[in-house]
Design a protein that fits this description.
Layout (H helix, E strand, L loop, with lengths): L1 E6 L5 E6 L5 E4 L3 H5 L5 H18 L1 H12 L3 H17 L1 H9 L5 H21 L3 H30 L4 H14 L2 H9 L6 H20 L23 H9 L9 H6 L2 H29 L4 H29 L1 H24 L3 H30 L4 H9 L2 H39 L4 E4 L3 E3 L3
Antiparallel strand pairs: 1-2, 2-3, 4-5
Length: 455
């Protein structure tokens, strides 16, 4: 270990310590000294912003029928609008992360830009004269805006809680699902061709205010920052932090995106997230239409999606907390198994017209379909460090570029060709494949060294 004291303006002494792997930890500055307020605000504010942008994805399925009828679009066209949104929501994460890490784009600027673009997305969906305008406005602009907010929220939390990021990241990530629940019922019961424009305009304004106000207070910690009250080179006295660090030790080094790719673990995460996100997006897009096709009433259809969203969101927080105690990789494998098996359960319940059973498997599908997102968000800095996390996680999350097309637009084509039976069977198999791939994940030991067994 080496240490070097550095005097900062204001009288605070900053010490940089280096562990046996060569990783540097910046100690001395408290969260209040950097932020001006406690770091838990960097959990609460990102969570609030995620509540707002959740409407884009998780409530879209409930609004699809009205949008198709009002704009005279086919159902496939409408779902392609969502697929384009998912594409750009994922695509913006890596370039925005690189700009942030180079100091060209602050977290506050990213949030405010995303807020304005999110409003443009809803206004476009409301007033689009044709499908191309909806694709450009809601899909491209709205997707980019939501992507800026999503990536900034997730990465900011991980930077402020490097010692136990699982539960914090899971809590924030959960807002991206259950925040849509009131709007699922609004779009199911209070949304028709007569009032859809006014409703969408007001929803867009709501998203603008929620994300914009939260974004005004965003700020990143300095590079290599570590909580002043925790010694990174000794067993922490905080029992929660001790358990989390024992199961999920800090990254052996700060990997650049190129170095992370060379370990082989980042590409493996990319493929695993591709599979899980594709299944999740398929469930989000088609659970309500499938419930209606199976003969269930609008209440059961909306309730199944509401259950999925609530469990999808709360499951992210619970699984993030569990991963701090069980280990991130082990928890990920269990989540993928639940996700895959739940698809077969939804199909079975729909085919047997069993409403209670349908809601049970909607519960499980929602749990598995959201819980893996915070696991990957925490696993990336666990393996590759915090300094380049915006870029590294952006690369992993970019797999949603393809999974959005597979789960949404291509999923619609598979439903047309093979019916819901074939589509849900394929989704279940893909979820089980992701569970198998997760078993291959190993924590890198250091740059140029390879990887070692880890969880």
């Amino acid at each position: 270990m080496t240490a070097q004291g550095v005097e900062r303006a204001g009288g605070t002494t900053v010490t940089e310590v280096r562990d046996v792997h060569g990783r540097v930890y910046r100690l001395g500055e408290t969260d209040r000294q950097v932020l001006g307020h406690p770091r838990w605000t960097m959990v609460l504010l990102p969570w609030a912003a995620m509540l707002g942008i959740s409407i884009f994805e998780y409530a879209f399925g409930a609004a699809e029928s009205t949008l198709s009828a009002a704009h005279h679009w086919t159902h496939t066209d409408t779902f392609w609008v969502l697929s384009v949104w998912i594409f750009f929501q994922a695509a913006v994460a890596f370039p925005a992360g690189r700009l942030r890490e180079k100091g060209l784009f602050s977290s506050r600027a990213a949030m405010l830009c995303g807020s304005v673009l999110s409003l443009a997305g809803f206004l476009s969906l409301s007033h689009a004269p044709d499908i191309l305008w909806a694709v450009a406005g809601f899909g491209v602009l709205g997707g980019t805006g939501a992507g800026l907010v999503y990536a900034t929220c997730i990465n900011t939390v991980g930077k402020w809680y490097p010692e136990r990021r699982g539960g914090k990241t899971g809590f924030v990530n959960g807002g991206f699902a259950y925040g849509a629940v009131p709007f699922i019922f609004l779009f199911s019961y209070g949304f028709d061709a007569d009032d859809y424009q006014a409703v969408l305009d007001l929803v867009g304004l709501y998203v603008l205010l929620l994300t914009g106000v939260a974004g005004l207070f965003f700020k990143d910690p300095p590079k290599n920052w570590w909580p002043a009250h925790i010694d990174p080179l000794a067993a922490p006295r905080d029992a929660r932090a001790s358990a989390a660090l024992r199961r999920n030790p800090p990254a052996a080094a700060q990997f650049t995106p190129r170095e992370a790719v060379r370990t082989g673990m980042l590409p493996l995460m990319w493929v695993c997230l591709l599979c899980t996100a594709g299944v999740s997006i398929f469930g989000i897009s088609f659970q309500v239409p499938y419930a209606k096709d199976a003969g269930f009433g609008p209440l059961v259809a909306a309730s199944s999606m509401g259950i999925m969203s609530v469990v999808n969101g709360t499951g992210r927080g619970v699984v993030g907390w569990l991963s701090d105690r069980l280990g991130r990789r082990v928890t990920l494998t269990y989540v993928c198994l639940v996700l895959g098996l739940a698809q077969f359960g939804v199909l079975w319940a729909g085919e047997s017209a069993n409403q209670p059973l349908f809601l049970v498997f909607a519960f499980l599908s929602g749990f598995g379909g959201g819980a893996f997102f915070p696991l990957f968000a925490a696993l990336v800095p666990d393996y590759f460090g915090e300094n380049n996390n915006a870029s590294n996680y952006g690369l992993v999350y970019s797999s949603k570029l393809i999974s959005g097309l597979l789960g949404g637009g291509l999923g619609a084509a598979v439903v047309v060709a093979w019916g819901y039976e074939g589509a849900y069977a394929v989704a279940g198999c893909v979820g089980l494949l992701a569970a198998g791939l997760s078993l291959l994940l190993r924590r890198p030991t250091g740059k140029g060294v390879g990887v070692r067994a880890g969880r």
